[in-house]
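Form 7-S
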Amino acid sequence: MKRRRFFKAIAAAPAVPAVLLAQQQQPVTPPRQPGGPGSGGLPTELPKLETGIADEVGESPAPKFFTAPQFAAMKKLSAILMPSINDAPGAIEAKAPEFLDFLLSQSPGDRKTLYRAGLDALNAAAQRKFTKPFAGLTDDQGGTLLAPLKDKWNFDAPADPLARFLWAAKADVRNATLNSKEYASAQASGGRRGFGGVGLYWFPLD
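Output:
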């Protein structure tokens, strides 16, 4: 019964207008591709893609352990503690902050807490005194916040958490710089032997 109604509906439907039928029978011309006559429909020039942003991301990887404000403070602190002198690379050139970021991500919990709390305290002190994060200070301004490093060293860790962090960071930044590939290469090219010797440096990890 349903099939019979279906065929009756088709028979009762109006015929397709002749004009519409003629339009359907005409060949459809495909849209013309850019590139001009004789180019085979292909563009004469390939589009140019901007790769600057991707390149910058590859050169500046995001920190694995530190937050962005902490890592910025760590880089500033490293630059003050181990600057580049003559032909010897400093902590920034040796990528010491990047190495410490990886090292701390694999460190015990108390070491992680020491660094995170210390960098947060350093940023807070910079905001109170200069209304800027530590990374935005000049070297002279940043140096005023590193006064605990002027205290006489002893075997007992400082009682102040910020001072304890600064003493630990000073040793770690120094070791990471002196044992880097960049520092060893500079020592070898200058005819000097580095502290660890070429071949005993750490490799930055991807």
